[in-house]
């Protein structure tokens, strides 16, 4: 019974992750600024990837150390990428 619930939750988290991936790509076809598009894409991609990794963690608990490392790496990469994009998009007069 518990195994079935864990499987259902795992598949649910993986589907939610895929939905986040597609949801993040929708703003790319809009008329907003490039930075808004990149921000929404990176946030949705990170949340989707983390959701999928957590779903995998429920399915393969023996690999918890690698999957936890993947979650931490995703969180750090998204933060650093946001700072780099913000720095690159600022004008030369402000620097």
Written overview of the protein:
The protein has helices at residues 2-25, 34-59, 64-89. By secondary structure, it is mainly alpha-helical. It has one domain. Helix 2 packs antiparallel against helix 3 (64-89). The relative contact order is 0.13.
Question: What would the keywords be for this entry?
Answer:
95 residues, mainly alpha, elongated
Question: Would you summarize the structure shown here?
Answer:
The chain has helices at residues 2-25, 34-59, 64-89. It has 95 residues and is mainly α.
**Biggest β-sheet: count, sense, barrel?**
none
**What's the gyration radius in Å?**
17 Å
Q: How many domains is the backbone divided into?
A: 1
Total E-strand runs: 0
Low-confidence runs of at least 5 consecutive residues: none
Helix content: over 70%
Q: Give the overall silhouette.
A: elongated
The H-and-E topology, N to C, reads as HHH
Average pLDDT confidence is: 86
State which percent range the strand residues make up. under 5%
Separation of termini?
Answer: 59 Å
* Alpha plus pi helix count: 3
Assign the structural class, choosing from mainly alpha, mainly beta, alpha/beta, alpha+beta, or little secondary structure: mainly alpha
């Amino acid at each position: 019974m518990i195994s079935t619930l864990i499987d259902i939750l795992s598949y649910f988290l993986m589907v939610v992750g895929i939905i986040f991936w597609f949801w993040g790509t929708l703003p790319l076809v809009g008329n907003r600024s490039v930075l808004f598009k990149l921000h929404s894409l990176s946030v949705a991609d990170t949340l989707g990837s983390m959701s999928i990794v957590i779903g995998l963690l429920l399915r393969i608990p023996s690999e918890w150390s690698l999957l936890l490392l993947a979650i931490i790496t995703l969180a750090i990469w998204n933060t650093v990428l946001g700072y780099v994009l913000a720095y690159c998009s600022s004008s030369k007069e402000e620097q």
